[in-house]
Q: What sequence folds into this?
C-alpha cells in the first residue's frame, strides 16, 4: 500500500485543497498578456508628418516599432535628431516585394502613407491604392493581427469636395479601404478631418460613423491626437473591422474618445 493511501482521509482532503489554492494563486499572480508582444508595429510612411506623430506615440508607450521610408538619408535630413533610434526600413511600397520584406517580424500595421501628387506614378492610384494593396496582401501573408489604415473623410462619395479638389484621389483611397476589408485581415479604417499641427489634448476628440463629410468640411484634427487614436485602434476590440471619422471638438471632454472607440459598430 502506498504512503498516500495510509494518510488519513481528512489530511488528504486538506492537502488537495491546498494544492488547488496554490495553483489558483499562481495563475492570479501572472502578469496580463501584452497585446503588443510578439513582434513590432510597422508604421508605413513613418517619416511623414502624421507618421512621426505615430512614432512619438509608440515610443512614449514603449511599444516596439519599425518605420518605412523611401529614403533613410532623406528622412534623417528632414527629421534631424527625431530620426535617431528609429528602426527604419527603406522601402518603396509600390513594389510588392518591398512590402513583403517590410513585414518581417511585424504583428500589427499602421499605414499613414498618402500621395501629394495628382498625376504620374506617385499619384493616389499608385500610392493610396497600389501601395496600400501591396501592404495589405503582405500583411495577410504574415498573419498580421490588426491593420489600421488612415484615409480621409469623404472617401465614399465621388461628389465630396476633397475628391473633386484632388481629381478623384479619394476614390483610390476608398479602393484601398475596400481591398483591406475584403482581405480577411482584422482592420480599422480611420478617416480624419483636415490635419493640423496643434498640440495634443488642446481640444477634445469626437468620433462618428457614416462618412458625413458635409457637416465636417471645416473641421480639423491634431496629428498628435490622431496618432493616439491610431495606436489605440490597434488593440481596442471595439475598433475591430470598423471604420470611423474623427475630428477635434472643443465640446468633448479630453479622453472621451476612448469610450467612443470602444463603442463603434463593425462595418
A:
Amino acid at each position: 500500500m502506498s504512503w498516500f493511501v495510509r494518510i488519513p482521509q481528512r489530511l488528504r482532503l486538506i492537502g488537495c485543497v491546498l494544492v488547488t489554492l496554490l495553483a489558483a494563486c499562481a495563475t492570479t499572480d501572472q502578469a496580463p498578456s501584452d497585446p503588443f508582444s510578439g513582434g513590432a508595429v510597422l508604421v508605413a510612411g513613418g517619416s511623414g508628418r502624421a507618421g512621426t506623430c505615430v512614432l512619438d506615440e509608440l515610443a512614449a508607450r514603449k511599444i516596439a516599432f519599425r518605420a518605412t521610408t523611401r529614403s533613410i538619408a532623406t528622412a534623417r535630413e528632414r527629421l534631424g535628431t527625431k530620426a535617431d533610434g528609429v528602426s527604419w526600413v527603406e522601402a518603396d511600397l509600390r513594389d510588392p516585394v518591398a512590402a513583403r520584406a517590410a513585414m518581417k517580424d511585424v504583428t500589427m500595421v499602421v499605414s499613414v502613407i498618402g500621395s501629394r501628387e495628382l498625376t504620374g506614378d506617385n499619384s493616389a492610384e499608385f500610392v493610396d491604392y497600389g501601395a496600400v494593396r501591396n501592404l495589405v496582401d503582405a500583411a495577410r501573408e504574415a498573419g498580421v493581427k490588426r491593420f489600421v489604415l488612415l484615409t480621409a473623410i469623404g472617401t465614399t462619395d465621388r461628389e465630396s469636395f476633397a475628391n473633386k479638389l484632388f481629381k478623384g484621389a479619394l476614390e483610390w483611397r476608398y479602393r484601398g479601404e475596400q481591398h483591406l476589408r475584403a482581405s480577411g485581415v482584422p482592420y480599422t479604417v480611420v478617416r480624419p478631418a483636415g490635419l493640423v499641427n496643434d498640440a495634443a489634448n488642446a481640444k477634445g476628440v469626437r468620433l462618428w460613423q457614416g462618412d458625413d463629410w458635409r457637416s465636417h468640411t471645416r473641421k480639423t484634427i491634431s496629428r498628435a491626437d490622431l496618432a493616439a487614436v491610431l495606436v489605440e485602434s490597434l488593440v481596442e476590440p471595439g475598433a475591430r473591422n470598423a471604420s470611423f471619422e474623427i475630428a477635434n471638438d472643443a465640446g468633448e471632454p479630453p479622453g472621451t474618445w476612448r469610450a467612443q472607440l470602444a463603442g463603434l459598430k463593425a462595418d
User: Anything to note?
Assistant: Residues 1-7, 13-32 have pLDDT under 50 and may be disordered.
